[in-house]
Amino acid sequence: MKNVLIGYAKHLALRAAVPALAAALWAALPPGTLAQESADHLGDLVEEALATHPEIDAARSRVEAASARVPQVGALPDPTLSGGLMNVPLPEVSLSGEGMTMFSLQLSQRLPPRGLRAARERAAEAELEVARAEVDLAGWSITTRLQEAYFELLLVAHAEEVHHRTYATLEAFEASAAAAYGQGMVPQRDILRAQTELAGLAEHMAELRQRRGVAEAEVNAFLGRDTRAPIRPVVPERLTALLEAEPGPGLLTEHLMHAELGGGMPTLTELQERALEDRPELALSGHRLSAARHKAEAARRDRNPGVAITGSYAFRSSRADMLSAGVSVELPLFRSRKQDQAVVEAEGTAEAIRSDRDGLIREIRRQVAEAHADLVRARERAILLEEGVIPQARATVESAAAAYRAGEGDFTSLMEVFAVLFRSEIEHAHLTAEVGQTLARLERAVGSEIPWENR
Question: How far apart, in whole angstroms, are the C-alpha atoms of residue 57 and residue 224?
């Protein structure tokens, strides 16, 4: 009879904790259900960053500079005008005493080798395309880096939700255990265990505050805002669609095979092919190679000698004026040490850029494959947690709580299974953000936003 009364007293003392547990844990918010009110949507932040970021402004200024260079290299060298006195008699200086004394004006124009100006102009136009490609590259880099920082902030926001729900529940348990202890119905260790768990959560919250500060500072740096300006993240629809999409072939299987994302997402092969079309670095490399080849062509044409045309008019006081004309040709006496070596230099530079481009293609394929594998792994783990581990952990906590209320379990066991649920929900928050960050990394590797059918 005594055991029955003690069990019933426990039941009464802990009744307050059960609703808190049910409200705080059983109805835990799934990914993507953060409060939408006054949220800072990722797309809006990306637009703001692209409109104000100094990297974009600097890249656009380089486009203006490269554009101004094109007409320069295609123009002829400036003509030379010179004038002077000739044949002035000495020691008696006289401008009319000697018939050969004259004042002359001379105009000279250098003409570069044929095709040199056109080759240099094509090279400058290719460098202009390089500058334009750098604008695209800077914009895409800022977009994907901001996305990764945003998803880190989203992770903190999810973790804070889990933390606050868990902390409120533990406080209810601690208060109920204290009340029961005061009536001599539970041992003191129940209170101490609850207080230990609360202290651990407080430490975890301090870590979350630090991570939030770092993440907000990083996002605000992209936006040019105050470092501590609050950012309220919300799960983007595209991330929710990916998390909720049907698993692809090879996902959630025990067989060793190459898994695909599924849900209408492109396959790895399709992503790699798309990357070779859309990757900004590859377009940039192509324009650099074109510029280098045009510079090599200009160096080859510069081996030919240029000519200069000269005309002069001489004024004489006592005799007829004189008109002169002439042509001068450069003598490439040091061609083997100058012009030929310039060709070797330009061709070597072009070949190096071509080799770098081939290496970049291989690296792009590797980056896409690595990011794709990471995204498959993160999405698979998120699905397993959400559909398997977390429901099982909740059921275990519910069973342990019921046993404790009935006087058949102990508080330590309840706290242990409760900690398992907390860690599972925190891990799910991490994985949700990891899926978003890895998706951003995959899109950085591909070079564009990834379209899929089920969006």
Answer: 13
User: What region, left, alpha or beta, does residue 400 occupy, with left being phi > 0 and alpha being psi -120 to 50 degrees?
Assistant: alpha
For 32, the token pair is 């993507």
Task: Check if the beta carbon of residue 394 is closer than 8 Å to that of residue 420.
Answer: no
Number of residues that make up the chain? 455
Q: Are the C-beta atoms of residues 312 and 324 closer than 8 Å to each other?
A: yes
Specify if 121 maps to a domain: yes
| Interval 190-246: pLDDT, tens | 777 777 777 877 887 888 888 888 889 999 999 999 988 988 988 888 888 777 777
Rounded Cα distance, 351 and 336, in Å:
21
Is residue 23 one of the residues assigned to a domain?
yes
Q: In what order do the strands lie in the sheet with 80-86?
A: 80-86, 102-111, 307-316, 322-329
401 assigned to some structural domain: yes
- CATH number for the domain spanning 353: value is 1.20.1600.10
pTM above 0.90, yes or no: no
Q: Extract the tokens encoding 245.
A: 């999409």
Q: Domain range for residue 391?
A: 14-74+116-171+213-304+335-446
Higher pLDDT, 399 or 369: 369
Residue 398 in contact with residue 176, Cβ under 8 Å?
Answer: no
Among 100-114, 211-225, 253-267, 349-363, top mean pLDDT goes to 349-363
The verdict on whether omega for the bond into residue 305 sits within 30 degrees of 0, i.e. cis, is no
* Residue (of 164, 161, 154) closest to 234 by Cα position: 154
The three-state secondary structure class of 247 is coil
Cβ-in-10-Å burial (0-12, 13-18, 19+) of 299 comes to buried
The structure tokens 């003509």 sit at 79
- Helix, strand, or coil (residue 36): coil
Q: Indicate the number of domains in the chain.
A: 1
Look at residue 110 and give its three-state secondary structure.
strand
Alpha helices per DSSP H over 1-109: 2-13, 17-21, 42-52, 54-74
With cut-offs at 50, 70 and 90, classify the pLDDT of residue 371: very high
223, 420 contact by CB (below 8 A): no
